[in-house]
């Protein structure tokens, strides 16, 4: 994919995002979009460990809850200012992620998923039962809005939207750096095959752990934003159904691409909005859609499109085969042209 | 350059490799042959660090590397290919190769996020190494082709290129000519000789006798996990124990 | 003493239910080599089918259970044919996602049909049996008896019939079984059917004590996973023993430690054991 195309594509998206509040009908639309952005950040994080590194982490929403509750507990119970608490949210998640990863990443892929499923449950149950810390099922109410920075008043929906957008853009930018670097290539090599990656000198545990911690950092940060945006929390934030939602977004958009999860995280909630009657039963539709996608379009919309682009580029870039230097037999395969 | 001392591997009650010793000189092409199930790939796995030996030692350039992890062995200069060539099928051939040189780079997460000079330099070097390796195996023209679209023989060459981009001193090739027709096999054999000429030590597992006999400097024969013969192709061809082990197979 | 025996009874009850669910899961794992996350939804579907047949159609308990077994077996086989079979060459990630898709669909479907409320399932076995100073609710005795009976039946089927042997063969080595002429498709469908039926029946046994609701499969299935990971994926004895262990651990844990945190016990056990032994308790050789 030519660099010019990529840059213009992203710039266009950014412009649209910046202009959105002026195009949106009302505050409700802003809410839908802002919430979508928050989950997009978490989904992009999930994509790093699942899409790029090949480990399906089912505790992802648990880590988002960790970040959310970090903010909630610190601000409401201990009077810590939002921005300070928020700065910590990603790191607290990554800290817990370190220990979870250390134990779980030694496990083979589906053991890893089962293990993380259980970890996610433990997180949910702990949040629900540990009332002295998390307020249990009552949840944390009345989280203060982020403190104003200069003239920016974050209790106002439009400013909140831009705040969330800012962090989304920052997250995407960092993720873009990671994914297109040697580090990103290392993750992909691991996903491609543990054995081959090791034979290429890649330290599996170290890199998997790094990917895991990075991914839950994003999730925790998204959770912190969620706390500051929605302003109340319940154990439901840690529910595994949110991880399933994010899996859906990744799959629709394209696992293992950068824009795929973003696209999915924005398109799917909006679709659900339009199919309002589906809200409660959205999975009656989404369940089979997930299955069909996985069978017929496993690379998602963006992924399939990218693959097609790459094939086309390869066809048009074919240089004529030089006379083979080694073997004496001419191969007809080399003479194939678009 | 590579010394194997009494290497053994037991899986529970099964002895896959039993007390095998061998010595491989620098710049030579060494073949490891034997009937199916003789323990050849297990032997490779023991040397390259994919599995740990039960007993014995592996000395690489005089250094004891027994029981090192595969990635540590790779960093010391041991590269290997596998029977099934796993490539990233939806990426281009060049894209597949760039990560090969990663082990020689030192960039960290901080470099990545800040986009430092070091990262850019190292990525450039990796790309150059990838191109050089691809050129060495004669496939420069396939650089932009999607990896899933190339032929089996080309895949084997790309696998070689991947191993070469790690800047190794020793190459362990597991069935490098698997699934490839006789003319292409000749081409691969020439490529392997070219690698040895450039200073690399090569060990390969193969079943294609004509290829081995013409290519190898020395041959090691395994059967039921034990070494039954070792020597030049001429010696091996005349060795009664080897002939007996192969009796009944279609290889002359 | 009576309290202790009471907990033993509870342990056997829970253990019986968990074993049945885990058995189905472990048999299917042998075929798929991927944990089927939809198994929990099969469990739930069994309960709802029986609920529909018993409470809404007025059938008696046993007909309800039979109906549930057949319905879930059907759903299970359909899943295998329509979803898992097309994916047999795909990477594991896709299997896992697809099974999640099935899970979500079934749960949402149940909710669409019967609402999100909790439902009671009627059973004719509401009496309490008094044995000395022990109170033994008849339903619990029924669960233990039925679970035990089903396990024995299953073992007989697997060990003594040719079809059963083919299932075991495929569960242990799919390629090898195909090489000796075993029809992989038929065996896969049969295994899924059995697994589904077991899960459905387990749900019908347990529901009268526990209520019927759309997420009833969640905790059960996660614990079933713990069981098969600990007991060995693909191992029938492992599923049975594992189920009993978890059942007892929960019963005693709930009583002697805390009812609030009892659900964590199974997960904590898993986390503990896998931390120390990443290959599970009963590491089966190369598969």
TrEMBL record, chain C:
One of its GO terms (cellular component) is plasma membrane. It is found in: Cell membrane. The keyword Transmembrane helix applies. Keywords: Amino-acid transport, Cell membrane, Membrane, Transmembrane, Transmembrane helix, Transport. GO terms for molecular function: transmembrane transporter activity. GO terms for biological process: amino acid transport. It is a multi-pass membrane protein. This is Branched-chain amino acid ABC transporter permease. It comes from the Bacteria. Belongs to the binding-protein-dependent transport system permease family. LivHM subfamily. The chain crosses the membrane at residues 12-32, 61-84, 96-116, 136-158, 187-209, 239-258, 264-283.
């Amino acid at each position: 994919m030519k660099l010019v195309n990529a840059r213009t594509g992203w710039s266009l998206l950014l412009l649209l995002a910046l202009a959105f509040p002026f195009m949106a009908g009302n505050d409700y639309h802003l809410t839908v979009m802002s919430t979508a952005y928050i989950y997009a950040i978490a989904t992009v994080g999930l994509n790093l460990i699942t899409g790029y590194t090949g480990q399906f982490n089912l505790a992802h929403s648990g880590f988002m809850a960790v970040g959310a509750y970090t903010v909630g507990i610190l601000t409401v119970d201990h009077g810590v200012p939002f921005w300070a608490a928020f700065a910590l949210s990603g790191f607290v998640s990554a800290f817990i992620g370190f220990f979870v990863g250390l134990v779980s990443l030694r496990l083979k892929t589906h053991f890893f998923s089962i293990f993380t499923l259980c970890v996610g449950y433990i997180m949910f149950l702990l949040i629900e039962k540990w009332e002295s810390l998390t307020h249990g099922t009552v949840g944390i109410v009345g989280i203060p809005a982020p403190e104003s920075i200069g003239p920016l008043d974050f209790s106002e929906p439009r400013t909140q939207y831009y705040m969330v957008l800012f962090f989304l853009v920052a997250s995407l930018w960092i993720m873009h750096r990671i994914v297109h670097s040697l580090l990103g290539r290392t993750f992909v090599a691991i996903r491609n095959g543990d054995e081959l990656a090791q034979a290429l000198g890649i330290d599996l545990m170290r890199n998997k752990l790094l990917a895991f911690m990075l991914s839950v950092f994003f999730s925790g940060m998204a959770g912190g934003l969620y706390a500051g945006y929605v302003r109340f929390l319940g154990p439901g934030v840690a529910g595994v159904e949110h991880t399933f939602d994010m899996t859906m977004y990744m799959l629709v958009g394209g696992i293992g691409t950068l824009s795929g999860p973003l696209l999915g995280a924005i398109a799917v909630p909006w679709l659900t909005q339009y199919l309002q009657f589906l809200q409660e039963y959205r999975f009656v539709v989404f369940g089979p859609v997930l299955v069909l996608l996985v069978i017929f379009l496993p690379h998602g919309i963006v992924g399939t499109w990218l693959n097609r682009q790459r094939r086309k580029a390869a066809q048009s870039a074919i240089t004529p085969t030089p006379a083979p230097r080694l073997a004496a037999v001419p191969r007809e395969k080399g003479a194939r042209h678009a | 350059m590579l010394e194997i001392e009494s290497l053994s591997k037991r899986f529970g009650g099964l002895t896959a490799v039993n007390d095998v010793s061998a010595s491989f000189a620098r710049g030579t092409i060494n073949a490891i042959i034997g009937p199916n199930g003789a323990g050849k790939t297990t032997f490779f796995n023991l040397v390259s660090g994919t599995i740990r030996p039960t007993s014995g030692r592996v000395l690489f350039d005089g250094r004891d590397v027994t029981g090192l992890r595969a990635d540590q062995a790779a960093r010391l200069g041991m590269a290997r290919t596998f029977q099934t060539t796993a490539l990233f099928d939806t990426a281009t051939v060049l894209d597949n190769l760039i990560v090969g040189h990663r082990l020689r780079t030192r960039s960290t997460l901080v470099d990545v996020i800040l986009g430092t000079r070091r990262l850019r330099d190292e990525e450039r070097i990796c790309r150059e190494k990838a191109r050089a390796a691809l050129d060495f195996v004669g496939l420069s023209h396939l650089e932009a082709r999607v990896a899933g679209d190339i032929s089996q023989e080309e895949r084997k060459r790309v696998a070689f290129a991947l191993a070469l981009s790690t800047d190794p001193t020793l190459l362990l090739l597991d069935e490098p000519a698997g699934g490839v027709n006789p003319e292409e096999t000749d081409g691969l054999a020439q490529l392997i000789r070219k690698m040895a000429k450039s200073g690399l030590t090569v060990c390969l597992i193969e079943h294609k006798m004509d290829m081995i006999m013409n290519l190898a400097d020395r041959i090691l024969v395994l059967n039921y996990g034990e070494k039954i013969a070792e020597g030049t192709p001429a010696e091996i061809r005349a060795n009664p124990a080897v002939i007996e082990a192969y009796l009944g197979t279609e290889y002359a | 003493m009576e309290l202790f025996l009471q907990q033993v009874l509870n342990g056997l009850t829970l253990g019986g239910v968990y074993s049945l669910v885990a058995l189905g899961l472990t048999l299917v794992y042998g075929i798929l080599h991927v944990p089927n996350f939809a198994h929990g939804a099969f469990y739930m579907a069994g309960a709802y089918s029986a609920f529909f047949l018993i409470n809404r159609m007025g059938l008696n308990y046993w007909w309800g259970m039979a109906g549930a077994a057949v319905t879930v077996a059907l759903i299970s086989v359909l899943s295998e044919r329509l979803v898992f079979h097309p994916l047999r060459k795909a990477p594991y990630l896709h299997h896992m996602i697809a099974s999640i898709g099935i899970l979500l669909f079934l749960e949402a479907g149940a909710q669409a049909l019967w609402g999100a409320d909790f439902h009671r399932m009627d059973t004719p076995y509401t009496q309490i049996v008094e044995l000395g100073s022990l109170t033994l609710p008849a339903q619990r005795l029924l669960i233990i008896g039925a679970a035990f009976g089903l396990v024995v039946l299953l073992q007989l089927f697997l060990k003594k019939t040719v079809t059963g042997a083919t299932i075991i063969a495929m569960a242990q080595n799919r390629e090898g079984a195909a090489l000796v002429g075993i029809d992989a498709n038929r065996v896969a469908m049969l295994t899924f059917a059995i697994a589904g039926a077991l899960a459905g029946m387990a749900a019908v046994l347990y529901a009268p004590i526990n209520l019927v609701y759309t997420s009833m499969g969640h905790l059960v299935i996660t614990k079933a996973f713990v069981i098969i990971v600990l007991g060995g994926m693909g191992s029938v004895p492992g599923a049975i023993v594992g189920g009993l262990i978890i059942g007892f651990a929960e019963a005693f844990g709930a009583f002697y430690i805390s009812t609030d945190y009892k659900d964590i016990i199974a997960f904590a056990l898993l986390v503990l054991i896998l931390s120390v032994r990443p290959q599970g308790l009963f590491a089966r050789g190369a598969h």
